What does this fold into?
Amino acid sequence: MSDAPMTANRRKIECLRLSPSAQVVAEARRYAVRTVELLGADREAQESVRTLVSELVTNAVLHAGTDILLGITDANCQVRVSVTDGSPALPHQRRIDHVSATGRGLRLLRILSVTSGTDSSDAVRPGGKSVWFTVSKQTGGRERETAATEARMLFGVDLEGAW
It folds into this structure.
């Protein structure tokens, strides 16, 4: 999947390389939120990035078992965040019920991001992938509130209290 609207006037920020361990999820969250804040993202956008980076990095740790690259690209009024690992396995939507502890990541990705997708990537290991999303830097508050309400209704997830 291509990210055509992000091609003009974008600036790649240095990638953070992470090892595949549970401890790196918090490090990835801190790095991503600090970076998008410096790029001018409002509080709601920062919270969306925090939630989605947690989901994507956790999935990479659990399912890929390879090093992970966390990349952030500045593109005027949006930021693009990518999580790259060495696994060729693409994310897929799982069936869940209200008591399931996992399986909500792709739904959250669709709710909280402007766009999202996957690309093949050899950056970590040949045949790997990159899962990415974009968020608007200035959400105006209403988008986050709507997303949080929808997430609570659909999957019983409290985005505001999650982290």
The mean pLDDT is 81.
